[in-house]
Amino acid sequence: MKKIGFFITAMLLLASCSKGYKVTVTFPDESANGETAFLTNYDTGDTLLSATVENQMCTFEGTADEGFFARLLVGGNRYGFIVEQGEVKLDIAQGTAISPLNDKMAAWSKDMEQIANDSTITEAESDARYAEGLKKLYEQNKDNAIGPWAFCNYLMYKDFTESQIDDILKQAPAEYAQLVRVKKIKRASHQLTVTAVGQKFTDFQVPAQDGSIQKLSDYVAKGKITVVDFWASWCPPCRAEIPKLQALTAKYGDKFDVIGVAVWDNPDDTRKAIEELNITWPVIIGTQQLNEPSDLYGIKSIPHIIVFGPDGTIQARDLTGDALANKLAEFLK
Questions:
Q1: Is residue 308 within 8 Å of residue 224, measured between CB atoms?
Q2: Over the range 178-213, which residues count as b (16 or more CB within 10 Å of their CB) and which as e?
Q3: In what order do the strands lie in the sheet with 314-317?
């Protein structure tokens, strides 16, 4: 259920907007004071407004033709919620966003958490119920801002092929096909095919802070199993995976290598997290937020770990925790 956990923790909640909106954000303590907060569009990633946090608060006011799912970026953290007409109150400490559509999303999220915590069903059943929950949420909210969010996350949660996505789009509102995230998901489906298990690695290169060029080929296909961890500092499941990788390196020593690839993240935040988490293996960090590596491998959620064989052939992907440990045990026995 790692994906369910990620989707639930990665969002705070949604919105339907018509004209004017006011978003009031409150923070739990003074640590955010002086930070610049950015209100961004979830679909496009565009920054819409910015504000300085003062007295544990900041406010955004603007207009929009219709509601949209937004992200608040501040201090290396991100919070998802809906912007809609009128006032939206976002409480960082409580992890809640209050407005009609945000309240509706909160109720749905609570139902999904119950599924995630249900110990009487298998992980496969939990995954199926969560996917069905996303589908129903989309179908019931095609006329408001919840619909596009649920639709995109349904497509991301299920590993649909390009042709399957095209078929699903035929039943969706026409404008959904123009969503930036839908287009990215279609490209990701293609890249998943060309970077599937059994395929040779796809190389990429990233400029480093010191002006040098970092390549995936600097680390893989060097005669040893290589575990490549695509992660971000703001991602709780990514951070939780680091100690597990450290335990594996302590267990197997130099029998395999670990490489990190920092994606969807501010480079300074990545470097800070490396120190905080005591990461000792090499991490590929760009001079700005990296998207190309994850795009090339069709990665839709993180952490995403790929295991490359000694010759660079992809042996396994999207494994974490015990599943990764068991797979490595097979390879290294």
A1: no
A2: ebebbebbbebbebbeebeeeeebeebebeeeeeee
A3: 283-284, 256-262, 225-231, 304-308, 314-317
- The DSSP code for 15 is -
Whether the per-residue pLDDT at 10 is higher than 50: the answer is no
Of the candidates 304, 42, 283, which has an alpha carbon nearest to the alpha carbon of residue 192? 304
| C-alpha to C-alpha distance for 129 and 266, rounded to whole angstroms | 34
DSSP 175: G
Task: Give the number of other Cβ atoms within 10 Å of residue 271's Cβ.
Answer: 16
Q: Give the mean model confidence (pLDDT) for residues 257-273.
A: 96
What is the C-alpha to C-alpha distance for residues 198 and 182, in angstroms, rounded to an integer?
27
Tokens of 79: 């919070």
Question: Within 10 Å of residue 331's Cβ, how many Cβ atoms?
Answer: 16
Q: To which H or E segment does residue 198 belong?
A: none
Cβ neighbors of 128 (< 8 A, separation 6 or more) are: none
The helix/strand/coil state of 160 is coil
pLDDT number for residue 2: 47
Rounded CA gap, 60 and 153, in Å?
Answer: 26
DSSP string for residues in 255-306: GEEEEEEE-SS-HHHHHHHHHHTT--S-EE--SS---HHHHHTT--SSSEEE
The CA distance from 193 to 26, in Å, is 44
Using DSSP's 3-state secondary structure scheme, residue 214 falls into strand
- Quick one: which of 217, 188, 194 has its CA closest to 204? 217
- Residues linked to residue 96 through DSSP beta bridges, in sequence order: 91
pTM of the model: 0.71
Name the token pair of 265. Answer: 């993240």
Over the Cα atoms of the chain, what is R_g?
20
Strand, helix or coil for residue 287: coil
